[in-house]
Amino acid sequence: MTAQGLNGKGCSAGADDSPSLHGLPRSLFRKRLDVVILFILSSASLIALGLIFFFILREAFPFFRRVPLVELFSRTWLPTLEPPRFGALPMILGSATVTAGALIVSVPIGLAAAAFIAEVAPGITKDVFKSAIEILASIPSVVYGFFGLAVLAPFLQSTLSLPTGRTALTGAVILAVMALPTIASLAEDALTAVPASYREASLAVGATRWQTIWRVTVPAASSGLLGAVILGMGRAMGETMAVLMVTGNSPQLTASLLKPVRTLTAGIALEMAETPFGSLHYHALFSLGALLLLITLGMNWSAEWFRGRLVRRHRR
Amino acid sequence: MVTGTVESGSLQTAIEWMERDTDAEPVIEVEGLNFYYGRDRTLSDVSVSIPQHGVTAIMGPSGCGKSTFLRTLNRMYEVIPGARAEGTVLFAGEDIFKLDPVTLRRRIGMVFQRPNPFPKSIYDNVAYGPRVHGIRRRSVLDGLVEESLIRAALWDEVKNELKKSAFSLSGGQQQRLCIARALAVRPQVLLMDEPCSSLDPKASSQIEATTRELAAELTVVIVTHNLHQAARVSDHVGVFLSGGVLAEFGPTKKVFEAPRHPDVQDYLAGRFG
User: Fold this and answer.
1) What pTM value is reported for the model?
2) Which of B72, B102, B175, B179 is the best mutation test for A, with the most CBs of A within 10 A?
3) Sheet (strand B219-223) strand order
4) Domain boundary pick from A66, A87, A102
5) Residue range(s) defining the domain that contains residue A242
6) Same domain, A12 and A95
7) Of A122, A123, A216, the CB nearest to B118
8) A313 touching B, CB under 8 A?
9) Does the interface predicted TM-score (ipTM) exceed 0.95?
10) Same domain flag for A113 and A147
11) In this complex, is the C-beta atom of B75 within 8 Å of any C-beta atom belonging to chain A?
C-alpha cells in the first residue's frame, strides 16, 4: 500500500465518522440536507397551488351556502340590485365564444406552423420561425390589448360597419394570436418526438413527404397535438387583460361574435375592485374564480395526460 | 492467428454448403460513384454491377461507407442535409438521379437496422405502401397483405391477429413485418441495412432463411457485419475498406476462398473489422 492510498483513506474516514448534531455521519447529513433543501424549494409551487385552491374555495363557500348553484347558470347578472341576481351564463358563454373563436383561428395556423418547423423548414428558416413564435409568447398581454384597442377594433368596426369594434370577434382574434405560440411550440415538440425511423420507413416505400407527414407523423403525434390544443385553449380561456380591453364587457346573453361580450376573467377583474369586502357579490366573484380554476385545471390535466401518452407510446 | 484459422475453417464449411449459379444480368450498375457528407468523402469512385436476383452482401469494417452505398441506391440519403452523390447509378438501365425518388423507392424497397414498424396494426403496417400508392379496394389490399406476410414468413404467426398492434410482436417478428411492408409494393430490389443487428441468433437465422427465399424472385442487397452471415446468405459479395473504396467484388465463394486485395484477406480472416 502506498503512502498516498493510506493518506486518502485516512482523510475520508475522518470526514465520514465525525459525529454531527443529529448523530449521523456528517457527510450523510450533508447529503440529506441537500435533498431536504431541494424538496422544500421545489414544493413551493405545490404549496402555492394548494393555497390558491384553499383560499378561493374558502371565499366562494359563503356564496354557495346562501345561493343555490343553479342560480350561477341563469341568464341575468345584476349583483348590486336588490334582490341581487347572480346569473353568470352570459359570462360563461362569453368566455366560451371568445375561446372557441380563438381556437378556430389558432389551431389550424398553429398546427401548420408546427408541421412546417418540425418537418419541412431548412435550418435557418426553422430558427427564424421558432424565435418569432417565442417572441410572440413573450409580449405582455396588455400590449396585445392595446394593439386590439387601437388597431383591430377600429378596423373591424369600419370594415364590418358595426356600432362598436369591441366585440367577441375582436377578442377572439387577439386571443388567437396569444394562444398561437402555445399551440405551435407544443405541437412542434410533439412532432419532433416522433422517431425519425417512422419517417424513413414511410419514405422508403415510396411515400411523398406530404403523405409521410399526414399518414405517419401526425397520427403518431396525435395525442401530443391534442395536448397542445388543449393547453392553447386553457391559455385563451384564462387570459384577462387583453380580452378586458377589447371585448366591450357588456354582460348580455349573446352567441354572436359581432356583439360586445364579457368573459369570466374580465368580469372578475372589473368587479372585484368595486365590491365591498365580504359582501355576497364578493363571494360570488370567488365562485366564478373557482369555476374558472376548475375548468383550466381540468384542461391542463387532460393535456398532460395526452402528452404523457405520446411519450409512453414511443418509448421502446 | 489461431482465431484466424478457426474462423476461416468454419467459413470454409459455410462456403461448401452453398454452391450456386452466379451468372446473371446486372440490375443495378454503378459507375464512378462518389459520395460526400459536407466536405467528407465517404464513397470514392465506386463502380460495380449488381446482378439480378440472388443476394449480394456488402461487407466491410465500421464507417467504411456500406450503409451510405446502400442508401444511395434508393436515394434515401437525400433526407440528410449536406449529403451529395456524384456519378452514375443505373437501375434497369435508367439513371436513378433522373427518376422520381417516389417511383424509385417503390421499385427498390428497404429494410432498416432496427425494426421500425409504425404504431399501427399489423395489417395497416403492411397495407401502408399500397395505400400511399392509391390502392383503396379492400379485396386488393387483403390480397397484398396476405401475399407479403407469406413471403416474409410471418403469415402463420399473425394471420389471426392482423388487427393487433405491431408493437405486440417480438423483435424478430417486427423485422419480418418490416420486410413484409417493403414487399407489399412489389419492389424488384430489396435493400437490407444490417437487418439482424438488433436480433438474437434464432431471429437472425429466420431472417436469413426468409432472405434466401426472397432471392429467388427479387434482388436482395444486404449490408452485414457478420462474415458468417454473408457466407451463408449471399451469392455475391462486395467488401468496402476505409475511405469508401470498394476493394473487392465477386461471387461469394471466390471472394472468400481467394480474395485478391491483401487488406480484404486480413478482413476476411478476422484480423480487423
Assistant:
1) 0.79
2) B102
3) B108-111, B189-193, B219-223, B54-59, B236-241, B245-251
4) A66
5) 78-314
6) no
7) A216
8) yes
9) no
10) yes
11) no
